Amino acid sequence: MVAVAILAAGRGTRMKSSLPKVLHSLGGRSLVERVLESCLEISPTRRLVIIGYQADQVKTAMHSTSDLEFVEQHEQLGTGHAIQQLLPYLEGFTGDLLVLNGDVPLLRPQTLKHLLQTHQEHQNAATLLTAQLPNPQGYGRVFCNGQNIIKQIVEDRDCTAAQKQNRRINAGVYCFRWSDLAQVLPKLQANNDQQEYYLTDVVNLLEPVMAVDVEDYQEILGINDREQLATAYEILQKRVKSEWMAAGVTLIDPASITIDDTVQLQPDVIIEPQTHLRGNTEIQSGCRIGPGSLIENSQLGENVTVMYSVVMNSIVHAGAQIGPYSHLRGHVEVGSNCRVGNFVELKKTILGDRTNVAHLSYLGDATVGNRVNIGAGTITANYDGVNKHPTQIGDRTKTGVNSVLVAPIKLGADVTIAAGSAVTEDVPDDCLVIARARQVVKPGWRLKTRDEE
Ligand code: UD1
Ligand code: CA
Questions:
Q1: φ, ψ for residue 398 (rounded to 5)?
Q2: Nearest CA to ligand 1 atom 13
Q3: Given the DSSP bridges, would you call strands 29-30 and 25-26 parallel, antiparallel or unpaired?
């Protein structure tokens, strides 16, 4: 049986933010959400989050995650004091307790599984994740004997110059046999530079305490300031991109591309430079996205191309071509093999298959059939200043260039609209509509010049 406790009560002073540190976003999810996700593989029976600074805000932000227990630490007197708050909650609990700092968001689930396995195989009282860092500054230093048994942990600020030379650091990830930890927690003292109760001091009171080095030290980087937040984002991006390239996705100039770790891609997708894929986006094989595109919460079928365009909360079916310079603003569905071209904005609009909106158009609240041609500059006048109104366009209809469709309006199938028409009334199937003033030509007429006056 494993319980997980996440330390999230601290203020995160070095972030210089009104937002609690653990709620800062890293690639679309908060730090504490990421820490919770890293525990998924060990299937904890209980998940406790220790909150303090702006506790309500943290609670509200996490309300959608089910089965969390919130433990309040009213005064932040150190990491040991934080874990002391668990005593009434875990009374009689007989399993192991995994403790994680809420500001260590890059841990791989596999690493935590390995830590727990080592802890249980050796029947340790405690097992700590450690790392050999090129630059250990700021971290607690871990001192071991030859068998990886920890003798002492000294915080950076409490280290002597000689102790600072030790590059083995405490990652802030711990496994404890809870019954043993519960016995010694009340004995912690705050005799250190910060006058805080350090969780790390329990290593002097438990036996044996073992260190397990993490293979990839980047996993344990803690976020204390905005620069470390940016570094973590870079590491995360590198990881995500390497995985997709290994899975058969081509990234052209990967450094200029960002991909959220929630995005799903198929092999033989090509992502061009300056392209950003976010949220719950899914892209099928054969798509070519970019350069210069943003795709968010959208589904793209096979062989879709998107160039210099923004696609938000939309569905694009197979073979469609989007861009350059299109904006699918949301709730848009583009049928297969459509062309949505240059300088086109679509909102709450459904296009049937093989329909083209190729130049300079705005369609809002429109339902368009198959094989329709929307002429250059066609605009739906969907908003009367108070309400939005729908436009319906039947199969194979063609709107002439610069048509204005004043909604609510319904055009049947096989309708042709003359160029420059302002269409205000419904049109049945198979009609030609000319809705513009007739041209007047006056022969022999020209503007008088000054000389003639
Ligand atoms: C801590 C460790 C250090 C380790 C480092 C790894 C201690 C004493 N030191 O130092 O050995 O190398 O993490 O990142 O534990 N928190 C509370 N309540 C408190 C104080 C802190 O919940 O009263 C939470 C913070 O919100 C944070 C976590 O505990 O998520 C760690 O606190 P922080 O102050 O960042 O500890 P470090 O100085 O980084
Ligand atoms: Ca920290």
A1: -125, 125
A2: 172
A3: antiparallel
Could you tell me which CATH number the domain at 2-220 has? Answer: 3.90.550.10
Q: Do domains 2-220 and 247-334 have the same CATH topology?
A: no
- Find the ligand nearest to 169 CA: 1
Which ligand has the shortest distance to the CA of 9?
1
User: What tokens appear for 319 in the block?
Assistant: 């073979």
Query: Can 63 be counted among the known catalytic residues?
Result: no
Homologous superfamily of 247-334 in CATH? Hexapeptide repeat proteins (2.160.10.10)
Contact 10 CB / ligand 1 (< 6 Å): yes
- Ligand that comes closest to the CA of residue 100: 1
Residue extents of the structural domains in the chain:
2-220, 247-334, 343-453
> What are the pLDDT tens digits along the chain (453 aa)?
999 999 999 888 999 999 999 999 999 899 999 999 999 999 999 999 999 999 999 999 998 888 999 999 999 999 999 999 999 999 999 999 999 999 999 999 999 999 999 999 999 999 999 999 999 998 999 999 989 999 999 999 999 999 999 999 999 999 999 999 999 999 999 988 889 999 999 999 999 999 999 999 999 999 999 999 999 999 999 999 999 999 999 999 999 999 999 999 999 999 999 999 999 999 999 999 999 999 999 999 999 999 999 999 999 999 999 999 999 999 999 999 999 999 999 999 999 999 999 999 999 999 999 999 999 999 999 999 999 999 999 999 999 999 999 999 999 999 999 999 999 999 999 999 999 999 999 999 988 887 776
The two beta strands, 326-328 and 310-312, are parallel
- 78 CB near ligand 1 (under 6 Å): yes
Neighbours of ion ligand 2 (CB under 5 A): 222
Question: Would you say the CB of residue 379 lies under 6 angstroms from ligand 1?
Answer: no
The reply to whether ligand 1 has any atom less than 6 angstroms from the CB of 380 is no
CB 91 within 8 A of CB 146: no
Burial class (CB in 10 A: 0-12, 13-18, 19+), 224: middle
Ranges of H-type helices in 94-143: 109-121
At 330, the amino acid letter reads: G
Ligand 1, atom 35, residue with closest C-alpha = 224
By most ligand atoms within 8 Å of CB, the mutation choice from 101, 106, 168 for ligand 1 is 101
CATH class of the domain comprising 343-453: mainly beta
